[in-house]
Amino acid sequence: MKQGVLVEDKARLGSAPPNCHNRCNECTPCTAVPDPTAPDRPKDKHSNYKPLGWKCRCGDNLYNP
Question: What residues form the membrane-spanning segments (predicted)?
């Protein structure tokens, strides 16, 4: 039983991709892709924090989820 709890906890770590269903203006396949964003002004030059957002992609086009 303990192993099942551990696996469940690990599955919740990190950012979950959005549902991109009907987000690409009828273009298919519409899939979620990570969109790393650079901070405007780093507060600490030694920080390795890089926020991660998500976009929906179809072909060469990106859409907001």
Answer: none
What stretch of H or E contains 30?
A: none
Q: Are strands 61-63 and 31-36 parallel, antiparallel or unpaired?
A: unpaired
Q: Tell me the per-residue pLDDT of 4-61, one tens digit each, with 9 for 90 and over.
A: 554 444 444 457 889 999 999 999 999 999 987 655 655 666 677 667 789 999 999 9
In contact, 65 and 20? CB cutoff 8 Å: yes
pTM over 0.90: no
CA distance 62 to 57: 5
In the sheet with 52-58, reading across from the earlier edge strand, the strands are 31-36, 52-58, 61-63
Q: Which residues pair with 35 in a beta bridge?
A: 53
